[in-house]
Amino acid sequence: MTIPNRGPASASARARGELDLDALRAGVGGRLLAGIDQAVVWDVAMRTPFRGLTRRDGVLLHGPAGWGELAPFWDYDADACAPWLAAALEQATVGTTDLPRYRQTVPVNITVPAVAPDRARALIAAAGASTATGPARSASRRPDAVPVTVKIKVTGARLSERQALAADMERIEAVRDAIGPRGRIRIDVNGAWDLETARKLLPLLDTAAQGLEYVEQPCGSTQALADLRRLVNIPIAADESIRLSADPLAVTRLDAADVAVLKVAPLGGVRRCLALVERLGLPAVVSSAIDTSVGIGAGVALAAALPELEHACGLGTVRLLARDVAVPSAVPANGALPVRPVHVSRALLRSASADAEVTSRWQARLAHIAAALQRRREREVADPGRAVAGLRL
Ligand SMILES: [Mg+2]
């Protein structure tokens, strides 16, 4: 007769995808991960490749307030990932139930990656097909319906790159045709254009869209956004200028944008985002990376807690994943997500859990991220002036 192994740190005793929390605590002295009793790696195929990715993976942390998620892309280093861990810890240990809730549902956009026009139409039809009011086209034509909002990724092609530019314009035209005249179209350039290219191309894409709701991060630098804003009459949204900048408040100081895009994970949590919105003083759009319903839940909580919400949010991305971990899944109906707690299904989590190789990569990565978060917090306590936007992580 063999005696069962009750040792908590044994890899064979842990379920598939589960991280060794004791080893992580040993690396950061325990306090940072206080209250976390489980950490599970998920790894899921994508239905539609996005950002060149065919799979997504991340970690779910469980604590007294439920599950929190961190799923930074693999090209982000540990310092860049520190806010993602802070956000996951906030979600798992403190939660958001004490925050104000100004609405019961959050309007969301449909996201169209850089795909062919037919695929763009299919994505919109699929999003519309799940609504009670029928396809997006008819929903947008009902006078009382909330207009459909579509966010289109563009390649950032320059004038000389005729084929890519034509593909961007054809995709935009196909979307306008699919959603009808009342629908809203926003494009995301991810900072790919220089000022001159943006000045020339933006009016062309605006025409293809028959009017853009806004263009997200057309140029890389905040100063270029400010300059462009004085040259074109198309609203500008700042994304990377807020989430990747050491000085996000420059967006307001330079009058560089009409809209602020906020993402909970890279900005270090729901509360930090709320404080940042207040300091920016701009209409906000809450967006996300491609997360499971857990990560999306943090975005929904933020959107619900914003006193004003003029634009649809970028939180309708769960359907880009082939699997999810929550029941019900945070998939929009009638162009909106309900504001409600996220229930993780143990069975779904098991089927989405990562294999040993991905899990061990995360074990090493999370140790680095935790150390980076700890260093940053110590630095900001010692010198509060170094905290980004005056907001400590
Ligand atoms: Mg963006």
TrEMBL record:
Enzyme class: lyase
Domain named Mandelate racemase/muconate lactonizing enzyme C-terminal: residues: 132-235
Annotated Mg(2+) binding sites: D188, E216, D239
One GO MF term attached to the UniProt entry: magnesium ion binding
Cofactor annotation: a divalent metal cation
InterPro entries hit by this protein: Enolase-like_C_sf, Enolase-like_N, Enolase_C-like, Mandelate_racemase_C, OSB_synthase_MenC1
This protein's name: o-succinylbenzoate synthase
Pathway: Quinol/quinone metabolism; menaquinone biosynthesis; Quinol/quinone metabolism; 1,4-dihydroxy-2-naphthoate biosynthesis; 1,4-dihydroxy-2-naphthoate from chorismate: step 4/7
